[in-house]
Amino acid sequence: MKQSLKSTMIAALLLLASAMPAAPLGSGQAASNSPDDAEAPQAWPRQAVRAPRGMVATDEAIGSRVGIEILKRGGNAVDAAVAVAFALAVVEPRAGNIGGGGFMLIRLASGKSAFFDYRETAPGKASRNMYIGKDGKLDEEASVIGYRSVAVPGTVAGLELALRTYGTMKIADVMAPAIQLAQDGFPVSEKLARQLQEERPGLQLFPMSRKIFLNAGRMWKAGDTLTQPQLAATLKRIAKKGAVEFYRGETARMLVDEMARHGGLITREDLARYTPKVREVLRATYESGGHTWEVLTAPPPSSGGVAMIEALNMLQGVPLKGWDDPQSIHVVAETMRRIFADRAAFLADPDFSSVPVAALTDACYARERAATIDPSKASTSKEVRAGSPHECGVPANPAAAPPRVATPGEGHHTTHFSVVDAAGNAVASTYTLNDSFGSHVTSTAGFLLNDEMDDFTTQPGVPNALFGLIQSDANAISPGHRPLSSMTPTILLRDGKLSFVTGSPGGPTIISATLLSVINWMRLGMEAQAAVNAPRFHQQWFPDRIRMEAEFPESMEQALRARGHEVQRGWREAPSLGHEARWHRHMGLVNAIGIDPQTGERLGAADPRDDGTALGY
Ligand code: DON
């Protein structure tokens, strides 16, 4: 469909936006109003939203509405996904972005699939020790807040490439809703007002952030209208001229000027050189419940797909009863411990290091790795080293020595959304600014900039500031390199047919949340919403403990402690330069779509942990 969006569509979207939180469109329904870390799950929806044709599941009702409107007007899932991504850049500023990067996994109804990598890159002036002071100590703030934490953004180039390759609409048409939302504004939700309050310490440090997101210090209240005229102008220029405007035009000029003025590293050359990549989808096949399942997932520079396949391989043949069974949690946590040890040693930007993907995802290696798990007792992370990955019949190379260890941090935010259209084309998309509101710097061009530099190994052997991840030297900062990611957009096929579209934000917990959603659907046969609602847990090798959602009962904590695990149920995140202190009950925000194998209906399962919304038609 190559057609201009009618002004009626724009008017309809505006009306919808201004009517928020009114009744949703189509046959969809909004998930419950339970802000993250505030409410227990009793009020969460029990059943996925059903619809015969298309479905969009995102963090934000407005984002889902934009997607569904594009589908209703004949756009395909890629058109809708690109429209949603631009719209979330307006209405979900903590994570939706044009100043960050991400991944988009596409599986077309024809059976073709592709993975778009628009991960940010390190600027040309970046260097290995740029965050290490004269005293040899890591400056943890410099890699997460302010101009020096910003990597070269990839989102605009990646979205344009995905649209041009597999979409059917013009960029101006899919961007029209985002432009309207930025120009005419949208109602601030309670969730957004709360997030802006939490992030005030960081946002107030930067004049444009303070002006736009803190209402020049007066703060936004739920129900206020947030307009973003600078962002609207930038989006209009991109809609008119394409991604080249962002990387070589007026937007590039504005960005480069402010970088030069404030000690940032990004230059004209960095922007002009940025290239999104189309990579081969990572795949694995399993038998479960009498069906053949194919998992399509993220290749490096994501670590997530490799980790997930390694985990699923290790868990093959292991009986899993569910998450009220301590034994099942024990085995999965021990599996996670090992995949994260391997992640630390082997994963990095595949364009610059040789990542042993085939060996890490090989069934023989998984069997050896799984054999090191004691079914009745927790290992210690000190004794679990990275393994010696190899393919069946090929001898192992000597293992990379896992680096030394220190202590962890925690952080937010990224966003995952899923789209399925009437023809059965599917998109799983995860994109991010890294931390919530990224570097907290808003460009004069009206958009927030990422702090993705912290995903590099900022100091070998020392965990990164936001997520406490130990990572290898291969992920060290180097110009043009992509920092290692955990983002794991994933699509499952059952007996060759589209079955489940999933993914999550959450730094390293992305891998666990996405893996658990896949296990819930493929291995445990849960209903789609149940697969999203089910409680989550995470073990990332170091720190040596299982982090569990607060809903797990104390008896589960005790049962795991009895097996030797350190356990943390819910956790407090300390205040930082960027944000106020906060208590976390939950991890991940999985916005998934299942397909009913009997009826073909789309089952929209947005994550109620933070007001996700699935809409269908
Ligand atoms: O790419 C990554 O793995 C991180 N930058 C993702 C950050 C994230 O998910 C923050 N969380 N909610």
What does this structure look like?
With 617 residues, the chain is of the alpha+beta class. It is 32% helix and 15% strand. The protein contains 19 helices and 22 strands. The strands form five sheets. The chain has an eight-stranded antiparallel beta sheet with strand order 1-22-3-11-12-4-5-8. Strands 2-21-20-14-13-10-9 form a seven-stranded antiparallel beta sheet. The longest helix is centred in the middle third of the chain and has 21 residues, at 326-346. Residues 1-38 and 401-411 have low confidence and may be disordered. 6-diazenyl-5-OXO-L-norleucine (DON) is lined by residues 412-414, 432, 434, 452, 455, 485-487, 505-507, 510.
Bound molecules: 6-diazenyl-5-OXO-L-norleucine
Termini gap: 19 Å
Number of strands: 22
Q: Tell me the overall shape.
A: globular
Structural class: alpha+beta
Summarize this structure briefly.
With 617 residues, the chain is α+β, with helices and mostly antiparallel strands.
SSE diagram, text form:
Elements: H1 7-18, E1 29-30, E2 49-51, E3 55-58, H2 61-72, H3 77-91, E4 101-107, E5 113-118, H4 155-166, H5 171-184, E6 186-187, H6 190-198, H7 200-203, H8 207-213, E7 225-226, H9 229-241, H10 243-248, H11 250-262, H12 268-273, E8 277-279, E9 282-288, E10 291-297, H13 304-315, H14 326-346, H15 357-360, H16 363-370, E11 414-420, E12 426-432, E13 490-494, E14 497-502, H17 509-523, H18 528-533, E15 537-538, E16 546-548, H19 554-562, E17 567-569, E18 571-573, E19 582-584, E20 592-595, E21 602-605, E22 613-616
Parallel strand pairs: 16-17
Antiparallel strand pairs: 1-22, 2-21, 3-11, 3-22, 4-5, 4-12, 5-8, 6-7, 9-10, 10-13, 11-12, 13-14, 14-20, 15-16, 18-19, 20-21
Helix pairs in contact: 1-2, 1-5, 2-3, 3-4, 3-5, 5-9, 13-14, 13-16, 13-17
